[in-house]
Write the structure tokens for this entry.
Amino acid sequence: MRLRNRVPASIVSDGRFRNIKKEYLIVSSNSISGRSSDPLQQRVWDYVSRSPLRSLWNLKGIPPGIVVRRTWRALIADNLLGRAAELGFYFLFALFPTLFSASSILGLAARSASSFYFKLLEYLALVVPTSALSMVLTTFNETTANATSGKLTFGLIASIWSASVGISAIQDALNVVYKVRDNRSYFQARLAAIGITIVLSILATLTLTAMLGGDFFAALSHAYIANHALAVLFAFFSRLIAWIAATILLTLSFAVIYYWVPGVRKRCWRWLTPGGAIGILGWLLVSLGFRLYLHYFNFYTIAYGSLGAVIILLIWFYITGFMLLLGAEINSEIEAEAVERNLASDSSAAASKMPSPPDLPRHNQLSETLHQL
């Protein structure tokens, strides 16, 4: 009613108001869903959704500087910093129900199984800050000690549902990155999120198990191989193989997210992409840098008191979400730039094939013809 009162009555009466209102709603919905209001730009993104590139490593003559500039502009336009904060909240929200469910299952299966999973979680100390990991391990011990059959059912439902909410947030963010509107129904999207949650949970457990296995075989080599040099060599290769397996599983986790989560029309499986490589490398480096920073300048406990560990964990989840979105943004901008170049080359080729208009007769030829007539 406010908008109608500000519009002249002549416009309202002849129906132009309805067209203005319709265009306003279209622009507003595009802004919310991440779709571009520019028809030409949206045509490029629709082409990216329908015809993905098989490999993103072949830039096809695209200078890396252009990819960097496009990614920077898209990072600001898509508000990746704000969306990473949203992902950090959902990751924190999904963490403890997941540990609750895992402790319930392992506690009912075997008493030693929970201690085995506790050892797996200790390997998160490579990337998770020490104070935040101590809080996670303490919570895990508390939930393991109170595991019962009744908590098992509730824990499974709560953890899967909570974690799928986090994956749903990733779905919304990547749909904005790829400028697509998800045509799946609510239940289809949620079932897909639950399936991805289960797959990623398995991959995370296998990654930690690979690192534990490397240390286990290294300890066996020192215990049962008499030759010290041979034992050291065997231990080195055991840990090396474990790190390679963990890297492959981490790369596979990023590949699964970039393949299944966006609501594009056609999907293309890629084991490793430029965005995935930068996201993984950036996540590892920033996580290690954050741990070093907290080791020397940890003021969170002074500022937040007992909530300092929660704030640190939330910041680490924020870093994780941002690196995940940054990798997807790099991949999408590489594809968009390639599509724009292909469309430009096709249009120029079509223009060159058009017949040129016939030359007009010169002025003297025209006057001579008129004189003869």
Remarks:
- Residues 78-338 form one domain.
- The radius of gyration is 29 Å.
- Residues 300 and 308 are 5 Å apart (CA to CA).
